[in-house]
Amino acid sequence: MELKELSLQDRERITALYMDVFTREPWNDDWSCPGQLDAYITELAGQRNSLTFGYFDGDRLIGLAMGHIRHWHEGTEYCIDEFCIARDMQRQGHGGRFLQCVEDQLLERGIPWIFLLTDRHVPAYDFYLRHGFRELHTNACMVRKAGAPHPERRSP
């Protein structure tokens, strides 16, 4: 297995693996609009601070880590936006080895922190816990749809 840094020149390979993993269980993401997926891949792999790694078995891309570098007061972070292993290669230890290769590469670059968000109700949650990640109980992930009605602010 080999770790390689990827760019937008690898868009076809990135898109194929991404679609194969995330349009099926347990995620079932609907990427039926090719333009939307292309824009997403461009955001993740084509910006100034983007950092995308591929994990290869020979010429076959079997793992993908897409994220960005963020300079933070506690040190530089690699924020993983997407991480996956090809479906037929999962549960064979490849994810853990790939994650270790990414971590080694980050340390070589002087990046000591890895940050990510994941859903508690998918297998990835347990995977990350098994590989040394911990939940930040002092933070909250929040979302609001623009234009959606919201309750009035309550007085204290």
Describe the structure.
- The chain has 156 residues and is an alpha+beta fold.
- It has one domain: Gcn5-related N-acetyltransferase (GNAT) (Aminopeptidase), CATH 3.40.630.
- Helix content is 30%, strand content 26%.
- The protein has helices spanning 11-22, 34-45, 94-108, 123-130; strands spanning 2-6, 50-57, 60-72, 75-85, 113-116.
- The longest helix has 15 residues, at 94-108.
- It is globular, with a radius of gyration of 17 Å.
- The N and C termini lie far apart (58 Å).
Portion of residues in beta strands equals 25-35%
The global form is: globular
The CATH class is Alpha Beta
Query: How would you state the average pLDDT, rounded?
Result: 92
Total domain modules:
1
Q: For this structure, what is the CATH homologous superfamily?
A: Gcn5-related N-acetyltransferase (GNAT)
pLDDT < 50 stretches: none
Give the strand line-up of the largest sheet: 1-2-3-4-5
| CATH architecture descriptor | 3-Layer(aba) Sandwich
Instruction: Supply Rg.
Output: 17 Å
Give a quick account of the main beta sheet: strands, pairing sense, barrel closure. Answer: 5 strands, mixed
**Secondary-structure element series:** EHHEEEHEH
Number of beta strands: 5
Q: Level of helix content?
A: 25-40%
CATH fold type: Aminopeptidase
| Secondary structural class | alpha+beta
Tally of individual helices:
4
Helix and strand topology:
Blueprint: E1 2-6, H1 11-22, H2 34-45, E2 50-57, E3 60-72, E4 75-85, H3 94-108, E5 113-116, H4 123-130
Key descriptive features of the protein:
alpha+beta; 5 strands; five-stranded mixed β-sheet; Aminopeptidase; 156 residues
